[in-house]
Amino acid sequence: MQALERILAILESTARTASAASPTKVAEETGLSLSTVVRLMQSLTDAHVLVRSADTGQYRIGPRLVGIVARATQSFDYRIAAQPLLDNLRDITQETASLHMLQGNDRMCVAAAYTTQPFGRIVPIGLPFPVAGSAAGHALLSQLDDGDLERVLNEVCEGSQVEIVRAAVQEVREQGFTVAVNQAVAGIRGIAMPVGKDPGLGCLSVSGPASRFDDAAAAKALPPLQETAEALVSMRALEPPAERPGRA
């Protein structure tokens, strides 16, 4: 592992820790030797990228890195950055492409590129819709850990719907996407895919009239949908959790 990769691995491990990270834990997570971790964490502390507690000897992300991220987020908007990718996905599939996020227990379209065909799916931007019972909603739920998933299911579903939605979410987790017809809107077929595993990145959907966007068209849309999702993952949302579209 190169020096820069080691530093990034240490920073990512430290940032994932809710309170503060010990060198031993970071070494276990990164696979680096303890001596290497101790040496690099001390260097990062000297540069104010990390902060070390004198009482516990554990580390937190320091003010210098927080400042860098804060300045970067001022000029980055995930939804704006995603728009050219949605436009390209729309042009390839000839159907509406949209990006969805979780907002509390609802799903919300935050960006879209509408089909230019005479009639097609118009996904309202900025309006909350039930997360259960749609391809996009099930793709979003697949990104949650099991505890959050069960909480949402118990809050938004009734009776047998809990098992139905749970099975649909499991299908997304196993095959990486889901296709639905006549679920959220009658006469509409949609294919949805989570953007990675981070709920903050949301999910992508391509949808259109079922008479035109049939099974063959949906299957043809899957590769560009996957490529777009991978492009969004590589882009990595820089927005801090408090400002990032997602769970409220």
Write a structural description.
The chain has 248 residues and is of the alpha+beta class. The protein folds into 2 domains: 3-73, Winged helix-like DNA-binding domain superfamily/Winged helix DNA-binding domain (Arc Repressor Mutant, subunit A); 78-235, Beta-Lactamase (2-Layer Sandwich). Helix content is 47%, strand content 17%. The chain has helices spanning 3-16, 23-30, 34-46, 63-73, 78-93, 135-141, 146-156, 161-175, 215-235, and strands at residues 50-52, 59-61, 96-103, 106-113, 128-130, 178-181, 188-194, 203-209. The strands form 2 sheets. Strands 5-4-3-8-7-6 form a 6-stranded antiparallel beta sheet, with helices on both faces. Strands 1-2 form a two-stranded antiparallel ribbon. Strand 6 and strand 7 form a beta hairpin. The longest helix has 21 residues, at 215-235. The protein is elongated. The two termini are 38 Å apart.
Task: Produce the secondary structure layout.
Layout: H1 3-16, H2 23-30, H3 34-46, E1 50-52, E2 59-61, H4 63-73, H5 78-93, E3 96-103, E4 106-113, E5 128-130, H6 135-141, H7 146-156, H8 161-175, E6 178-181, E7 188-194, E8 203-209, H9 215-235
Antiparallel strand pairs: 1-2, 3-4, 3-8, 4-5, 6-7, 7-8
Helix pairs in contact: 1-2, 2-3, 5-9
Could you write a compact summary of the structure shown?
This protein is an alpha+beta fold. The protein contains nine helices and eight strands. It comes from Actinomadura physcomitrii.
